[in-house]
Amino acid sequence: MKNSPQPVIIFDFDGTIADTLTLLIRISNQLADEFQFQKIRDDEVVILKTKTITKIIRHLKIPVAKIPLILYQIRRQMRQHITEVRTAEGLKDILLQMHARGWHLGILTSNSRKNVETFLKHNGLNCFDFFKTSVGIPGKTLRLKQLLRKQNLQHHEVIYVGDEIRDIEAARSNRIKIAAVSWGYNHPDALATYQPDYLIRHPKELLTLFPFE
Fold it and tell me: How far apart are CA 201 and CA 63, in angstroms?
């Protein structure tokens, strides 16, 4: 993909493409007793959407040593319900338009490859050129760096699209632009505090990321 004349957009998956928040909360609450952390109350969701992932772990008192196993169980249980998950309203059409324009689309996620493939097939999203899944602990900064290297991408030709504060931090660390979307895991006001290059309020705004097109 080196020196590609077309824009390259790398998407986070959970919360950005796939509207998995409700499913994630349900699964987390099912696992809470087994792994001895707090369940998420309905009235807590808005508060948690303002926090970083580190603060969420502290808030819910999740045992750090058990996080790899908890993530494994979340991915496994999510597989049973992934066909119930849809994109944010209006996003599917925008992704298909990007693909039709010849833009190169990728996915970076800690979800499993099987879950991603099943979701994309079930939602008719055969429009992604590459994706990287990682079931290990390494953070998004490292995984994004690895993906950029693997795809031989230059920093200036890439925009990363995510829904969390850690997505903004990962993009900054890798010196690429970040478009933070308002419909995911973190509240848009919390995202704005970290000053992303773009704050996307509606999927159609993604088409303006490359105005020269």
Answer: 34
> φ, ψ for residue 171 (rounded to 5)?
-65, -45
Mean pLDDT by 10 residues, the chain (213 residues): 73 97 97 97 95 94 94 94 94 96 94 95 96 73 93 92 96 97 97 98 94 53
Q: Is the pTM of this model over 0.85?
A: yes
Neighbouring residues of 18: CB distance < 8 A, sequence distance ≥ 6: 82, 85, 86, 87, 111, 119
SS3 track for 74-85? HHHHHHHHHHHC
| Bridging pattern class, strands 8-12 and 177-181 | unpaired
Catalytic (active-site) positions: 12
In degrees, rounded to 5, the angle at the alpha carbon of residue 125 between the alpha carbons of residues 122 and 127 is 150
Q: Which two tokens stand for residue 123?
A: 């939602």
Helix ranges (DSSP H) in 36-128: 45-48, 53-59, 67-81, 91-100, 113-122
**C-alpha–C-alpha distance, residues 81 and 58, integer Å:** 27
Tokens 């499993």 locate to 112
Q: If residue 183 lies in a helix (H) or strand (E), which one and from where to where?
A: none
